[in-house]
């Protein structure tokens, strides 16, 4: 039976900067089933990252409701948001967002620290995921000593280490050469094949075609 992991109803997001209000998203309706593979495509400034931040529990909508795994996230406190994020979401950012001075192993262990898992177990779990992603020989490198493609694989490992239901990737290939980009997209394809829910933001229609479903966003609304 299909299960709706993400349910977004009439969501809007307005940013207040000084005296100016900017409506970055309006009337967003979106339902995503467990195991789905969705690409979000749209021009710069159309609201893709804003939507991903809402889905990823990094931000709350100004209006409307958002249910993640049946729980109403739109009413969460910032503490609840952090918990939901840690429990359900693996987020991969365009600019990797790794801790540059920390080792690869420590970067990937970090989400498990927030879960209160002991050092030994954190390290062995992080090592296992990094080995699966072909980074076994770089565990003790600092993340700023790696290539872009390697850093993005570390970021994917960090997103996967908690075994989240939903993987969100905001332009994960935006800063990569085409070969590294292909490698990273292959990782997402494999995650989907393994049963994960994958949501990918991209400018690139060729990348979007890997998904089962493409959602086009323009001026803060979904094009139908
Ligand atoms: N924190 C913020 N404060 C004010 N305005 C914001 C903020 N974040 C985003 N915006 C505005 O909201 C709109 C949508 O931004 P968003 O980052 O979601 O676009 P995007 O589709 O991800 O673009 P890109 O492809 O360039 O990453 C933009 O006009 C942007 O200037
Ligand atoms: Mg963006």
What do these coordinates show?
With 224 residues, this protein is an alpha/beta fold. It has a single domain, classed as Rossmann fold (3-Layer(aba) Sandwich), CATH 3.40.50. Helix content is 34%, strand content 29%. The chain is built from seven helices and ten strands. The strands form two sheets. The protein has a six-stranded mixed sheet, sandwiched between helices. Strand 7, helix 6 and strand 8 form a beta-alpha-beta unit. The model has no long low-confidence stretch (mean pLDDT 94). Bound molecules: adenosine-5'-triphosphate and magnesium ion. The site of magnesium ion has 3 residues, from helix 1.
- Write down the CATH class: Alpha Beta
Shape: globular
Bound chemical compounds:
adenosine-5'-triphosphate, magnesium ion
Topology pattern, helix = H, strand = E:
EEEHEEHEHHHEHEHEE
Question: How many runs of DSSP E, i.e. beta strands?
Answer: 10
How helical, in percent, are the residues? 25-40%
Sheet with most strands: 6 strands, mixed
Helix/strand structural class:
alpha/beta
- Average pLDDT confidence is 94
CATH architecture: 3-Layer(aba) Sandwich
Poorly predicted runs: none
CATH topology group: Rossmann fold
Q: What number of domains?
A: 1
Specify the CATH homologous superfamily: P-loop containing nucleotide triphosphate hydrolases
Strand order in space, largest sheet = 6-7-8-3-9-10
Helical segment tally? 7
Radius of gyration: 17 Å
